[in-house]
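Morning, I've got a small favour to ask if you have a moment. I've been staring at a protein lately and its backbone has me curious. You're getting the sequence in one-letter code plus the fold written as tokens. I've dropped the whole record in just underneath, so have a look:
=====
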Amino acid sequence: MDAGWDYERFKAFTCADDDDIDTFRRLAGPTIGLKRGDTLRMQGSPDPQVYMLLSGWVACSIIVGESARQIVKVHLPGDLVGMPSLAAPTACDTIEAVSTAKLGVIETAAIGQVFSSNPRLAALLFLVSQQERVLLMERLASIGRTSAASRIAALILELRTRLRRNDPTIENVVPVPLTQEDIGDMTGLTPVYVNRTLRQLRTSGIATWRRGVITIDDRDALAVLAALPQSPERDTSWIPSRRG
């Protein structure tokens, strides 16, 4: 297990206790190291596995048509990667490293064991999956109904919020190892349009995205531009305790 991995992202959202975290920690088996650009698995691969992202960033994408790539999710440390493919006999997406990354392999049987022997942790994992669904709903609404500037503003705010779960000290300077092509594949824009939109955000004094770092100059204006509802996390006290 990667000694530097922080479980605060999982713990903060789910109100998990130390026993839950310990069980979650033990799910990960052998580790896999990736370099930027490495492909962990391809869409359509048989018998897809689930992974725990220990460090770095990975992107999950779907090939549309013959070669068009749509990034449907960028995963950050603390995420479970590949969960949607549990419902299919072959991988639903391609998993590729967008930075140096390390992942722990989670056997499918280990996930099944959680549901049979630890219903509290299973409920917490279920809530995390619903949070992922909300993010996808917001991304779909953003791509389908907003301008290019709004899409990129929404993406910046999403990444900032998610990164702050691991590091609450992050404020207006946000490290993001994505290329303009990656941004385009997440927002449905061409790299040329992404470049033009980022320049617009910079000249408007709202945000600057340069060399893997976002500097947010006007967070309020960025939130207005993103045009998405705020989604506070719901209290999870309704989940029974281990002894409840």
